[in-house]
Amino acid sequence: MKNNEFINRELSWLSFNERVLQEAQDEGNPLVERVRFLGIFSNNLDEFFRVRVASLKRLAGLGRQNFSTLDFSPTATLAAIRKKVVELQATYAATFENLEAKLAEERVFFRDHTQLTPDQILFVEDYYRNHVRANLVPIMLNPGHPFPELEDQSVYLAIELKVGRKSTERMKYALIEVPPHMERFLVLPKEGNDNFVMFLDDVIRLKLARLFSLFNPSEFNAYAIKITRDAELDIDDDLTRSLVDKMKQGIDLRKKGNYVRFLYDRRMPQEMIDFLMKKMKIKDRENMIPGSAYHNKKDLMSFPDFGRADLRFKPLSPQPHRLLRNKISLLDEIKKKDILLHYPYQMFNYVVDILREAAIDPHVTRVQINLYRVAKNSHVVNALINAARNGKNVEVIIEIQARFDEKNNIKVASMLQEAGARVIFGVPGLKVHSKLMLITREEKDVERMYAHIGTGNFHERTARIYSDVALLTADQRITAEVGRLFEFFENNYQRVTYRHLIVSPYSTRRKFTELINREIRNAEAGKKAFIILKLNNLVDPGMIRKLYDASNAGVKINLIIRGVCCLIPGVKGMSEHISAISLVGRFLEHSRIFVFGNGGKPEYFLSSADWMSRNLDHRVEVSVPILDPDLKKELDDYLSFQFKGNVKSRIIDKSQRNQYVTKDRTKKRFNSQEEVYNYFAAKANE
User: Which homologous superfamily does the CATH classification assign to the domain defined by 503-684?
Assistant: First the structure.
């Protein structure tokens, strides 16, 4: 497993998720928010197993023991993952117990089915009778019958029943799915100042005797289990079938993907574990993870707050932009000056308002956009439908292969087509991950274009919690090239040269390599040379080695990497001029911002692309230069706040200990996300 050049990608990701777990442990966070961070941790880990662990198991099954993105053996990596996950699960369980005690101090009490008062039992029984019972389908697990197909991500109660007299007592097993569409937490009636809550699982446990009364069991027990399946979509090569049809079939087959994790209640008897393993045809224990009495802790993301504002983060409402607030025409304002929007600090609604304006503006002739992920009941999609119904030429490039959003994107595509929009399903062989919008407007017989180029999706829900940046511009140097890119989406055989935009898979790797080389030359010439990179993930070995070259030449490199960082900072003779931090807080850092010193005339870029091989070589990604001096200053201010943070920033190093940037509690507290919010709140009133 040793590699002195890179950090293992999968272990780096687990280190990131450990930072999320630290947020649940952080006493500076409000109590309910700490509980919800436990939910985020669980949700992240689920996806990690569905995607990354599943991929490694496929590689290991093929015997590709020496193949991985950075030369780490899949088999050895899987063993290291299991060891780390078991360690994290133990920390998680201890954290949950601690938070349960903290909630009790705040007069919020968990109750299970054995702890209810007579009045609470009546309330729960009434809820069970009116809402739960009809949604339960008990399945008896008879030895001669095939085992049912378990739903990925669902929680099941594996039931053990002892039936018959003492002399002839035998064991029966059954399975009940905890209804996935129901609220996971039942809030019980308040008693004085005391609040009570219970898991839906325990509502079911309370009524198991009644549910299985036919067998008259002398004893019964219920243990939670959960499986995680391989989420890879297998798309066949049948050219006679449409991509949408193949995607629909792939989504159905995903429901039957191989098991990559079996999570079970650690109190479950070994005899029952062996029975389930045999029925489920699980032959090894490699990814069997012992857990607590409750699984799918991702549901903690929606843990109730009991009307207690003091247990939640103080609301930070998105701020208006001083150049756009209360303006009749947003397009007219964009024509005057380039604008940056920073979500969630500033209002994402401006994007929807621009589309709504375009839908009714008689001078707008065309609206073009590419969609990767959108919200359910998306206002963006509704505005596009309105534009199409108003006779605008609406062209939507929609990526239906966006993982876990395929089903919603197929639905969105159908809605847009019914409204009269032209829908293009990506580019063959490439995922379209760029975040582009282009509006064409006839102005005094001149065609003018307005562009949005961003780091995040057109998704109003995630824009409330994902930190992203978008450029709004009418600069013809930029908009003309965005227009050429939309032409490429229509005619994939055309190869276009861009002078300003940097576009994957054609020029991103080459252009940023050139910019790093320029910093190397400047450093070797004795000039000031620096690079600032803010990314979600830094994985690509070629770009990492190029950064090592720059460090060895004396280039000062500062990194903010939220998630996976395979680069090892601070190693003498390799990366001694590179420092890296990860920022994890109430908002998810999602923006990609790059700054290159350029001999005293810094160049700034926003990008949709992380520095991973897939983003550089196998997707359509767009980076855009920031040309306006005021906006460069704005990005400088923004980045300086992030580097000054001492509350949510952790040091990235080879040890992956996730140490905070400062342990000195006497030092003035500086929460970079809160300070960024205050900065944009002040700018709104300039």
Answer: Endonuclease Chain A (3.30.870.10)
* Phi, psi angle pair for 307, to nearest 5°: 70, 15
Catalytic residues: 433
| Residue whose tokens read 């309330």 | 123
Give the Å distances, CA to CA, from 145 to 75, 174, 234, 279.
34, 12, 29, 9
Longest dimension (CA), the chain: 96
CATH level 2 (architecture), domain 9-311:
2-Layer Sandwich (3.30)
User: Mind listing the pLDDT tens digit for each residue in 479-494?
Assistant: 999 999 999 998 876 7
Helices 379-389 and 406-418 meet at what angle, rounded to 10? 20
Determine if residue 13 is left, alpha or beta; phi over 0 gives left, psi from -120 to 50 gives alpha, anything else beta.
Answer: alpha
Looking at residue 241, the DSSP 8-state letter turns out to be S
Provide the 10 A C-beta neighbour count for residue 331.
20
User: pTM of the full predicted structure?
Assistant: 0.91
Give mean pLDDT, residues 384-395.
Answer: 97
Residue at token pair 């019972």: 133
List the single range of 145-149, 237-241, 518-522 with lowest mean pLDDT.
Answer: 237-241
8 A C-beta contact, residue 608 and residue 431: no
Domain ranges of the chain: 9-311, 330-496, 503-684
Residue 28 is classified by DSSP as T
CA distance 28 to 480: 48
Nearest-angstrom CA–CA distance, 7 and 16: 13
- What is the rounded average pLDDT for all residues in the chain? 90
Q: Which residue has the higher pLDDT, 422 or 403?
A: 422
Element (H, E) at 190: strand 185-191
Order of strands, sheet of 259-265, starting from the edge strand that comes earlier in the sequence: 139-140, 170-177, 156-163, 219-229, 259-265, 288-291
The 3 state secondary structure assigned to 64-105 is: CCCCCCCCCCHHHHHHHHHHHHHHHHHHHHHHHHHHHHHHHH
Report residue 13 CA to chain centroid gap: 12
Please tell me the distance from the alpha carbon of residue 156 to that of residue 137, in angstroms, as a whole number: 11
Which two tokens mark 530? 């620096």
> How does pLDDT run across 553-605, given as a tens digit for each residue?
999 999 999 999 999 999 999 999 999 999 999 999 999 999 999 999 999 99
Q: How far apart are CA 96 and CA 514, in angstroms?
A: 49
Phi, psi of 38 (to 5 degrees): -60, -40
Closest-CA residue to 427 (of 374, 504, 507, 540): 504
Residue in the block written with tokens 């919800």: 36
Rg (CA), the chain: 27
| Residue-wise pLDDT tens digits, 22-52 | 999 999 999 999 999 999 999 999 899 888 8
- In 3-state terms, what secondary structure has residue 411? helix
Both structure tokens of 332: 């007219």
> 352 with 384: CB under 8 angstroms?
no
Q: 633: Cβ–Cβ under 8 A, 6 or more apart, which residues?
A: none
Q: Within 10 Å of residue 329's Cβ, how many Cβ atoms? A: 11
Model confidence over 330-388: pLDDT tens digits? 999 999 999 999 999 999 999 999 999 999 999 999 999 999 899 889 999 999 999 99
Q: Which residue has the tokens 């446990």?
A: 205
Contact 350, 325 (CB under 8 A): no
DSSP-based three-state secondary structure for 170: strand
Tell me if the domain spanning 330-496 has CATH number 3.30.870.10: yes
Alpha-carbon span 222 to 397, nearest angstrom:
48
Question: Can 9-311 and 503-684 be said to share one CATH topology?
Answer: no
Closest residue by Cα to residue 78 from 58, 57, 103, 96: 57
